[in-house]
Each structure stands twice: as C-alpha cells, then as structure tokens.
Specification:
By secondary structure, the chain is mainly alpha-helical. It has a single domain, classed as ABC transporter involved in vitamin B12 uptake, BtuC (Orthogonal Bundle). 72% of the residues lie in helices and 3% in strands. The protein contains eleven helices and four strands; from the N terminus they run ββααααββααααααα. It has a two-stranded antiparallel sheet with strand order 1-2. A two-stranded antiparallel ribbon has the order 3-4. α1 packs across α9, α2 runs parallel beside α4 and α2 packs across α9. The longest helix has 32 residues. It starts with a strand and ends in a 10-residue tail after the last helix. The model has no long low-confidence stretch (mean pLDDT 89).
Length: 295
C-alpha cells in the first residue's frame, strides 16, 4: 500500500475529502454570516438554528408532503429565508441604532428558543435523510473512493459561494448594498428602498444557512443540535477570515476544513481545537482577520 509521510494514501485522501466536506459547510455558513454582518452589522447568533431549520424543512417536506431533495434545495432556503425576513422586520430592525451586543443577545435567544422547540418535538436523536438516488454510489479513483454525493456538495458549495461573491462584489446590486451600509441616506436619495434592501439581505443570508442545512441532511442526519454543534466553529472561521469579508469567509472555510482533515491524520488529538488555535494566532498577529480591513 502506497504511503505519504508514513500515512496510507487512502487514509490521507479520505481525511482530506472529509475536510473538504466540512470546509464546504464552514464556507457556506460563514458566507451567510459575513453577508449579514458586512451589510447589516449584525452578529447573527441564530445562524446555526437557521441551518438546522433548513435541514428540518427538507425532512418535513419529504416525510409529510413527499417532496424530495431537489425541490427542497429550492423550497427550504425560500421558506427559512422568509422567516428571516419576518425576524428582521419585527425584531432586528428595532436594534440598528443600538450597540451590536443587543442584536447578538436577541439572535442568541432566538437560537435557544428554536432549538428548544424542535428538541421538544423531535427529541435529541438524529433523523435519517436519504441521499437522492441520482447521487448514490461513487467513483473509484484508484487512490480513494469518492462518493458522488460528497463530490456534489463540494462543487455545489463552491458555485454558490463564488456566485454570491460575484453578486456582492461585481454587480450594480452589490455596489448598492455596500453603499447602503456606508451612507444609507445617499442611496435612498437615488430612489432605492434601503430598509427593504436590508431586509432582503438578511433573508438571503439566512437562506444560505438553510441551503447548507439541506445539503448537510443526508451526511450528518437531521437533529435539533446540528446547528449548535457547528456554529461556534463557523464563528471562528469568520473571525479568522475577517468579519464581513466575503472572500475571507470562502477561502478560510475551505482552507480550515482541509487543515482540520490533515490534523486528524497527523495529530488526531488536536483536530477539535486546531481551528481555535489558528484563530488565537491570527487575532494576535492581525486582529481584523486575514482578509479584513485594518483600521
């Protein structure tokens, strides 16, 4: 059996694949957080619960209405994103003039309420969600076996992440969004409804979390705890990449997933803490994050 640095090739590439899968979800979730913080200045602690809501929406669509995975990829982000619009209009919009801490406390409380409701209804054990038949099986690459669904997650998350980056950084709509965060009165003078734009931006960020939840359902199972277990790591990813940095969220998410996978091969004991060690080092050297703007 071929080895690299004393590690069997199949084991090494297997862990790298797992790292890429985790990195895909880190990137999608941190991208949603970066969009919301960068354009609304809100630290959305309910993001993990909204990721869980996406997975449960797909689960309920399948088991109650017979609507499968592919339609859930469209319906779940819209449904959960719409709930985010309601939250922004009824609650968060009242806090924009206050300290960031109030928005963090509100969204943290919402996350606890949502998770508690679902835990009471569905229990703490995971609910299975089947891989769609079109993506069953895998490919034997010689040095490793690549499941089709895992490959789909990596490609789809890359497309969504880069598409979001292009929308915000390279289009007129994105320039309006960025301008609205700096000078909303000026943007409003051009006839643009800034409050509606802010509301839809929050809904879009929440929809990204829900999309990640649907994609994660066949991999991790559907449980009320799935968001709470992940959100702390995702916040670390956002801090390392730079709060509000779109490209930072994408690059850091995938990169830290790979680092985590490699750590499981060469030093398994540190795999659960390596991201937080990196965060501490980055904050010491570059407090604004790798891609954040230094003040």
């Amino acid at each position: 059996m071929t080895e690299i640095f004393g590690v069997p090739t199949q084991a090494l590439f297997g862990q790298l694949l797992i790292g890429l899968i985790n990195g895909s979800f880190y990137a999608l979730l941190s991208l949603g957080l970066a969009v919301i913080f960068g354009l609304l200045n809100i630290i959305n602690f309910a993001h993990g619960a909204q990721y869980m809501l996406g997975a449960f929406t797909a689960y309920l669509l399948l088991n109650k209405l017979g609507i499968g995975y592919w339609w859930s990829l469209l319906i779940a982000p819209i449904v959960v994103g719409a709930s985010g619009v309601v939250i922004e209009r009824l609650m968060l919009s009242k806090l924009y003039q206050l300290d960031h801490l109030y928005g963090l406390l509100l969204t943290f409380g919402l996350a606890l309420v949502i998770q508690g409701l679902f835990r009471n209804e569905f229990g703490s054990s995971g609910q299975p969600y089947a891989i769609p038949g079109q993506l069953a099986g895998g490919q034997n690459l010689g040095f490793m076996f690549l499941p089709n669904y895992r490959a789909w997650i990596i490609v789809a998350s890359l497309v969504v992440c880069l598409g979001t980056w292009y929308l915000i950084e390279r289009t007129q709509l994105g320039s309006y969004l960025r301008a609205a965060t700096e000078n909303p009165q000026l943007v409003q003078a051009f006839g643009i409804n800034v409050p509606r734009m802010i509301t839809l931006t929050y809904g879009f960020g929440v929809g990204l979390a829900a999309l990640a939840g649907v994609m994660a359902a066949p991999v991790y199972q559907v449980s009320p705890q799935m968001g709470g277990d992940l959100i702390i790591v995702v916040f670390a990813v956002v801090v390392i990449g730079g709060m509000g940095s779109i490209m930072g969220a994408i690059v850091t998410g995938f990169g830290l997933g790979l680092i985590e996978g490699l750590t499981k091969v060469f030093y398994p004991e540190a795999s659960s803490t390596v991201i937080f060690v990196i965060m501490a080092i980055v904050l010491l050297v570059r407090p604004a994050g790798l891609f954040g703007a230094q003040k």
